[in-house]
Fold this sequence. Notes:
Elements (H helix, E strand, L loop, with lengths): L12 E5 L11 E7 L15 E3 L2 E3 L6 E6 L2 E5 L5 E4 L3 E7 L6 H6 L2 E3 L4 E7 L4 E5 L2 E2 L5 H6 E7 L2 E5 L2 E2 L3 E5 L5 E7 L5 E2 L1 E9 L3 E9 L2 H11 L6 E2 L9 E2 L3 E6 L4 E3 L3 E2 L9 E5 L5 E8 L2 E9 H4 L13 H4 L20 H8 L3 H15 L2 H13 L7 H9 L4 H14 L2 H14 L1 H7 L2
Parallel strand pairs: 3-6
Antiparallel strand pairs: 1-2, 2-3, 4-5, 5-8, 6-7, 7-11, 8-10, 9-17, 10-17, 11-16, 12-18, 13-14, 13-17, 15-16, 18-22, 19-20, 19-21, 20-26, 23-25, 23-27, 24-26, 27-28
Amino acid sequence: MFLFFKVSNHFFIFFWSPKRLDISGGEMIYHHYGQRCCNSCADITESSHWVLMEPSVSMETGVPVYKHRSPPGSFECAVSGLRWVCTGEVTLQYHFSDPDVFRAEVAMLQYTPISSLMDIKVLSGELLEAHLPHFACLDGSTSSLSDAVRVLRGADTGITLETCELTRFHAKLLKPSFSLTEVLVKIGVPVKSHLDVLIYRTRVTPLTLLTYVVPRDASMIQAVEEDIREIQDAKKLKKHRPDMSIWMNTKFSLTSSCPADVSPPEITLKYIRPPDLFQVFIENADHCFDLELISEGQSIWKATIQSVEYGETGEVARSHKMSAAASRHSRGVFHRDASYTSKAARADEEEGKMATTSNKDQLFMIRPDLIKRISGSVLRDLLDGLQGHQAPVLSGREAEEILQSTRVLRDQVTSLIDIVYRKGEKACDIMLSMLEELDNYLYRDLVP
Length: 448
């Protein structure tokens, strides 16, 4: 199922007491008490009679499939926040689906998403209600926001839109029938978003933190985990949840209380995959220091990071290969030694061969890794730069065809590389030079 809202997101925190319920199926269920985690919308009432339920998880298809079997009652999935009400025993399952499945149709209808696209199936029993989680904050919202929200149902034959009841954290449906489903909001209706802050340590000396600020959305958390997976020894610090929401498409910055290089200087809040991130480099980290998010001159989140969380400064961090996450937004603002790249460990004679390789051959040699690891933002910057070069490498028509022929990032990158490669040595040289400027870490990792 999907939730869609004008550019905005939303999140919440749950607290529960570990009281085991005796039900069939062996699943752990806990009484759940709603905890207001957003000061912006704290005056909006929310029922707290839901029972939090841990799903069973299957990986048979390579994609996590979550399954619940519940007795009569009102329940909430501990993974996604999906809620349901039933008067008899129900078995249901769901998984997160590719968010681009209906993106073209949704865009044509002038809507935008506010939650995960989920494929939900009721295997047995019947639901009286389903409550689909969204990440939009209802602070200061008017009836126009509720009027602008729709639930999308998708199938091979097309899509339909249905009305729903919008609550603080969910979109409510009565007697739902499921398929691929999502909730949308009409583009042009302003929406605020609740946030999650996810921090990963990739090195201790110098301290290197990758910091994601994303809409509160379970599939977005999965996207971050996939983005970070290639980094060896990455350590996840505890998740933070700001108690203020901000408008979608708002710019915000990240600051540190101790001297640090933060790249990029600003990020715009968007619901995109892979999500944008800050890289924080601290040469001499204090025993504890503060990180703070600033948006429109206002602090929206501040947290103290202690050495016990990220590791002692004397710890020796092992070498690792930088992933797409670690390379995104890099501009070479922080010196890194050879341990930042596995390429630097290659034999001297191999590096010598690369030094005499033509630009066309270099682009061809790095093509597989570049397709896998380049970010969407760097691709867009490359397209703009190649069009705007003094001697344009790409025409506007070619750039448009790259973006419109497919919505799959890897396919777009493949098309760009193939077009530039066919244009010869000079075009390849220009593209490689732009890649070095736009994403220095990725370039240095691919081209010694």
